[in-house]
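Q: I'm writing up a methods section and want to include an example of the input and output format. Could you take the sequence below and give the corresponding predicted structure tokens, formatted cleanly so I can copy it straight into the document?
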Amino acid sequence: MLKVRLALIVLFAGTVECIYPQSAGEVTTKDATPTFSTGVNLVLVPVVVRDDHGRAVGTLKKEDFVLLDKGKPQFISKFSIERPDAPVTAPVESVETDPEGNAKQLIDRDGAAKQAPIATRFVAWLIDDIHIDIGDLLRTRQAAVRQLTESPEPGARAAVFTTSGRVTQEFTDDPKLLQAALNRIIPVPTQIGASNDCPQIGYYQANQIVNLADQQALQESADEYLICNPPPPGLPASQLAAYRQQALQVAQQYAQRALDYGDHETRLALDTLTVLVRRMSRLPGSRTIVMASPGFFLMNEHRSAESDLMDKAIRANVTISTLDARGVYVVIPGGDASTAPNAGSTNPLKAQYEIASKLADQDVLAELASATGGAFFHDNNDLGEGFRRTAKQPEFIYILGFSPQSLKMDGSYHTIKVSLTKDAAKSIAGLQLQARRGYFMPSHSKDPAELAKEEVEEAFFSRDVLSDLPVRLNTQFFKTEEYKAKLSILARVDVRRLHFRKADGRNSNTLTVVSGVFDRNGNYISGIEKTVEMRLKDQTLETFPEGGITVKSTLDVPIGSYVVRLVVRDSEGQVMSAQNGVVEIP
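A: Here is the clean output for your methods example:
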């Protein structure tokens, strides 16, 4: 939650004291975050529906969808349609004032109201330098550079990241900076199945040996060790058995080492994605991650982290699209030209594990894209076309939400199946439906106060416009120095239309008001969180003026272009209003 907190100014068309002296004690302020009565464990499921031409369909309604959790029908309590190309910010009524509050109209040389060139589209290019090899990286980098140096979309910003964290270029509209970052990326050497290892055991086969006790996989690795390290000629049969037993032990040790390295690299990739989702959740616009990777294997113990990553991305409106950097690939039994002599077994079983490994590596790319409404580009060498497809969000993404009923908080995995009703399905030629496959049930319920904090924070850093409360956003500013200004964000709330709880003869409600600004590249600058506790008498509520109350938050900012974000939440109606605005301070 926002760390900056200042005192609250509450105005009743002026000040509380001079307009409503009888209201003393009826409206108080404090910095503590209120506790809301929130819903339980809402599961969000993005769905993309396409016709036979691959075009996203945006005409469906909530009643057209059927959602099953472990085969049981669920009531869809939340339904919305994401339109990534829809404007997320708009100019607000911003007035320049002098220190005494006298208003001046801000105009440009042509006499028109100024409007700021603000970023509303963010694409993070994530290159998986941990798992990619040099050949695939060169092709990927070349295609990415071409895509990034093309004419950018208006208001678009791009950034470059790597799973290792060694190369980072924050969001910018400068293609030269992006190209320079891409050119600095090199593969990070892996310790799994190094070229001089014998036996060479990949991460997938290591999991088969160590975690699944696959004796066939272990024997194959032991046979490979014996090819590289044959027993001395003339070794007695009694010692030969011991030598073969030693080969099994060596294979087990190599498998454990490969498993440890693979586990570390997988967790690093998932952690990087999680951090990037959190980073992008604080950007005021359309958000897409394009991950270029050959894929990586997930053990069963990674599935909970993957599900948590999907949840975070969905709630933050971050679309994850994936591109298999291998393009069209083949598995060469015994290894390719880069494999050391005699390092590969000629056993056909080795090729089977390698094929299974390649397919398993691809699964995570498909799952991340499917769960978040992204695109998955694979088995195609035209990486330029792949980047064009993955960087573009679907025209329509349906967000279905449901709260699992009568289910145990046991941390178990729940499969999800989404389909259309028969009538809806008939109306779409060549129906293609993409949806999340499942989720992990939490092992315990979260504290309601913590859930409330998360809900307000997610709303503040999202791009959604919500109108469940009667709130109007206005701004005003005055310059304190040549390059500095004070920006005031005003939230006007019509108190008469709020829900109140009757307690001790008073009408009670608590408002949480979060105001903040982002710069032209989408970077969070600063914000203020305030609470307004209302304990109004009946007479005060009945005679409240139409203007309601105004909560004024003032920030010190340099001159420039800003996106303003305002979120207001009440404790009794359990609803929010969230608005965006653009302000130019010349």
